[in-house]
Amino acid sequence: MPRGLQLSFIVVGLVVIGILLFYIGRQSRVLNENRMRQKKAEEFQAKRRDEMIESIRIIALAVEEGQVEHSEACLRLKGLLDYVAPELLDQAPYRVFQEVHDKIQHMPTHRARKATDAKLVQKMDKERFAVERQHAEDVRKAATAIRHYRFD
Fold this sequence. Notes:
82% helix; elongated; mainly alpha; 5 helices
């Protein structure tokens, strides 16, 4: 084989090796960036979950100490548990959060409540207070249980 042809093959081989090394390096950087993004996302989700668990415990303590209405606590706890541990809403004693939520979720809150007719608000308040009285003991027991629950 002529020497010029051999050198041409060697040069082409080195160019191909160079291109492959560049591609491998680029893919390695992309892979590392994706791993870092994934790690940051997992850390963010873990922090968010821990903050939600802390919120659950604070709300439960507020229920135990009578600092929050049971209906509001149930709405908030149900919302938090939907993200943290939705399976608990089907188990006793935590099921009461779902039950109270289902009975009062149709009632307006915040701005919508302010915009609603006063007579209708009074009627809904009576309904809400009746639901709270009906489930008061169960809500307190569930709040105590959820405050001591180990979220793993």
